[in-house]
What we know:
Elements: H1 4-10, H2 24-45, E1 76-80, E2 87-89, H3 92-100, E3 108-114, E4 130-132, E5 137-140, E6 154-156, H4 159-169, E7 172-175, H5 181-185, E8 201-202
Parallel strand pairs: 7-8
Antiparallel strand pairs: 1-2, 1-3, 3-4, 5-6, 5-7
Amino acid sequence: MNTPCLHRLHSFHGPFTWPWRLPLAAVMLITIALLTACKNESVVAQAPASPVLDVPADARGHYCGMFLTEHVGPKGQVRVRDVAAPLWFTSIREIFSFLAAPDEPKAVTGVYVQDMGRRRADGSFPPEAWIDARSAWYVIGSGAQDFPAADDAMPFATQADAEAYRVRHGGTVVTFATMPQAFVSAGSGALPAGDGASTGGTSS
Length: 204
């Protein structure tokens, strides 16, 4: 037996449009809004993590396990997705080794180094010395002996500062992208022969 509502439905002759059906234009606008929201959420989720400005007293090197306070020279930190604390590095060379190692985490959300241009007279670095490692300039193979870790890659915020350091101490200016793998793998600051980098110049 048909109810009154079903009777009216069956007795309707002609195209039927549900009262709640939205116009196509409205559906398209809602869809665009949802897609935009998802895109914005994705951008936020993938935004680079900021560096930790003050190195904790108990921060230890990711590879050597020693306290960062026991090492002079510029340090590094790598931020990894879903890991609250940074991975700390007592040398800049170790950061490049970490990024190249196939068995290390690849969900990296930030890589930071200390700008030698902001190094204090006592060898320490202020909190604002942290810079993005991917945009930094590096002097390698300088052989400078102003502190024990001087055979490491020396990071600078600007090319001009890196060139000024090279003029004083020698070496080669490179970028993050042009850092020679031979230097990263070497045990000292001296560049192996035939690695493609020339002393006293800029590698680009």
